[in-house]
Amino acid sequence: MSKVALITGITGQDGAYLAELLLSKGYIVHGIRRRASLFNTDRIDHLYQDPHLPDTRLFLHYGDMTDSSALVRIIQQVQPDEIYNLAAQSHVHVSFEEPEYTANSDALGPLRILEAIRLLGLQKKTRFYQASTSELYGLVRETPQTEATPFYPRSPYGVAKLYAYWITVNYREAYGMYACNGILFNHESPIRGETFVTRKITRALARIKLGLQNCLYLGNLDARRDWGHARDYVEAQWLMLQQDNPEDFVIATGRQYSVRDFVNAAAAELGMALRWEGLGVDEKGYWVDPAAADGARERLVVAVDPRYFRPAEVETLLGDAAKARAKLNWEPRTSFEALVKEMVSEDLAAAQRDELVKGHGYKTMDCHE
Ligand code: NDP
Ligand code: GDR
């Protein structure tokens, strides 16, 4: 008998990689998607299976983390062996602008699912994974961060995820549920949302290189993160639900880079060595573009825009995944260099397609967030 999994947030970065992984393991996969005015299933279109065929193993349901009745209906219908709660308003900066909505979807959303499991009498059958985050550490108290490091969130997103973390622990302890938190550090990929800093950088630099965009505006270039690959991290999510006992795990690479390092690595991958000038808000990155119309003129390609500063910043994160290594036998497989290379290569290919479209007189879209 195939196991049945339910993924909230299946249309997001992790949801797409996890759905692919679970299908490859023979699971029947159900996903919750939101109604949108445009198609929002781009990331999972390659996994689509004709629902009219008898051996279909991927099913999508309309629902929302803010809508308890829809969540109960779907869980009752699907009777999942495993629920992966990945859905969230996941943008830290946006959470300062939409704090109440962020709390509703990211804090109360997981509670709604846990309650649905309990009220439907599924607490012995259904295992629950909560997408917890290194943002819980916020103003870090020790480095590197482990499962025992105290939390100090710095954004409405982090605070909402703190509630979600503890309600997951609480339901595990109170009702004996198999519920666990993956405390995942930043993980990226070519299908990372375009407004997160890594993807914003690889996409913009590829477009600048091809003359489709002039400048990349960023916020805090000194922020330091522990960046891994989403493909590796969803494997850890699955492993956490396959153990004898539910536990919480840090998932990280143990290597740390600044945003500026990421810009330099992506630029180097594109053959654009950058020269930096100024400090803080004056900081700018120049590139000597050999193909520039007026000879070897230096072009401004990166500038700081204070609009991207956050009201409270998480300056530095570095994880220690020793527990996951020991108990889950999990290791990150993708290096920082390989991650940057893969992201740049896919964004360059996309920019080349846009160049072709533009060459035929059509307008292409820019992304400024
Ligand atoms: P994405 O932003 O790419 O995906 C979020 C998903 O949640 C999308 O499918 C989105 O739908 C869905 N969603 C958002 N709000 C709702 C809602 N109210 N109801 C139903 N669905 C909703 O995030 P990632 O894939 O990067 O991250 C997955 C999870 O892991 C998130 O919870 C995130 O907070 C957490 N996390 C992520 C890390 C990372 O570095 N990527 C690190 C640590 C934790 P739609 O496509 O319609 O927008
Ligand atoms: P983060 O990721 O906030 O860590 O949350 P993000 O890529 O948004 O920011 C990382 C760091 O880069 C700095 N930064 C910028 N960030 C964005 N988005 N845009 C910019 O122009 C920019 N310039 C500098 C930020 O200030 C920050 O310090 C991600 C999300 O996936 C969360 O859901 C997840 O929980 C955490 O990672 C772990």
From TrEMBL:
Q: Where is the NAD(P)-binding domain?
A: 6-343
State the UniProt keywords alphabetically: Lyase, NADP
GO MF, one annotated term: GDP-mannose 4,6-dehydratase activity
InterPro entries linked: GDP_Man_deHydtase, NAD(P)-bd_dom, NAD(P)-bd_dom_sf
Give the E.C. number(s). Answer: 4.2.1.47
Q: Which organism is it from?
A: Azohydromonas lata
Q: Which HAMAP family match?
A: GDP_Man_dehydratase
Q: What class of enzyme is it?
A: lyase
Q: What is this protein called?
A: GDP-mannose 4,6-dehydratase
The protein's required cofactor(s) are namely:
NADP(+)
Could you tell me which NCBIfam families the record lists for this protein?
A: gmd
The record's Pfam families line, in alphabetical order, gives: GDP_Man_Dehyd (PF16363)
Q: Which residues form a coiled coil?
A: none
Q: Which family does it belong to?
A: Belongs to the NAD(P)-dependent epimerase/dehydratase family. GDP-mannose 4,6-dehydratase subfamily.
The function of this protein is: Catalyzes the conversion of GDP-D-mannose to GDP-4-dehydro-6-deoxy-D-mannose.
Q: Which reaction(s) are listed as its catalytic activity?
A: GDP-alpha-D-mannose = GDP-4-dehydro-alpha-D-rhamnose + H2O
Q: Report the superkingdom from the record.
A: Bacteria
